[in-house]
Structures are given as C-alpha cells and as structure tokens.
Specification:
138 residues, mainly alpha, 0% strand, rod-shaped
C-alpha cells in the first residue's frame, strides 16, 4: 500500500494563521485596555460630580420628605383646631343670645330708681360711770 502524505503545509498555515490571529487579538485587547483606562481617567471628574450631585439630591429629597411630614402634622393640628372652633362658634352664638336677652331686660328698666331718703338718727350720749372694782387689789 502506498502511504498517503499528510499535508503538513496546511497544518503549518493553520497554526501560523491562528498565531497571527491570537497576536492581533492581544494587541487589540491591549489597545482597548489603554483606551478604557484613558477614558476612565478623563471621566473621573464627571463621575465624582455625579456622585456629589446624587448625594445632594438625596439630602434634598430627605429635607422635602421632612417638610412634607411637618406640613402634614401642621395640617392635622389645624383641622383639630377647626373642630374646636366649630364648638366655640355654637357657644358664642348661645352667649350672644343670652346677652341680647339681658340687653332687652336692661332696656326695660327705668333710668333712675328713687331710693328712700335716709334720716340721721339722734345722737346718743353715753353716761359717765364712776365705779371702782376690787380687781386691782386696793
């Protein structure tokens, strides 16, 4: 039997092309890594600014939430005060009615009321007493 020759030149060509491909991929990867590092360095100030902006936004949102809670508490307090004022309004109306009744009664009273005249009683003199007691031991 005749021995077949294996095509070595195809294996060598395949190996060389795979090696060239691997070297080109390594070169592209190296270039890309350098470019990525440069871009990251260029964008670092923007990333820091965005982080500060986010932090400020979070603080502002917390303040807005706190203000909303305080506003809600104040609104609840005002509602409670308004309920108390409703009851006060009814009591003031009853008081106004009572005052109107008193004013009506006061109008019907005469402007002057004659008072009885006061006479002075006679002056009473106390008699002089000359008496001694034995209390002093004499």
């Amino acid at each position: 039997m005749t021995e077949r020759r294996r095509p070595v030149h195809l294996a060598v060509a395949l190996g060389v092309s795979a090696g060239v491909y691997a070297v080109s991929l390594a070169a592209v990867t190296g270039l890309q890594a350098g470019t990525d590092a440069a871009v990251a360095t260029e964008r670092a100030p923007a990333v820091d600014a965005l982080a500060k902006l986010k932090s400020g936004n979070d603080r502002l949102a917390a303040k807005i939430d706190a203000a909303g809670a305080a506003y809600g508490a104040a609104a609840d307090s005002y509602r409670e005060a308004a309920r108390g004022l409703d009851g006060l309004d009814g009591r003031l109306a009853a008081l106004a009615k009572s005052v109107a009744g008193i004013e009506g009664a006061a109008v019907s009273l005469p402007a002057r009321v004659p008072l009885p005249s006061v006479t002075r009683a006679r002056t009473v003199t106390v008699p002089t007493v000359h008496a001694t007691t034995g209390a002093s031991g004499k």
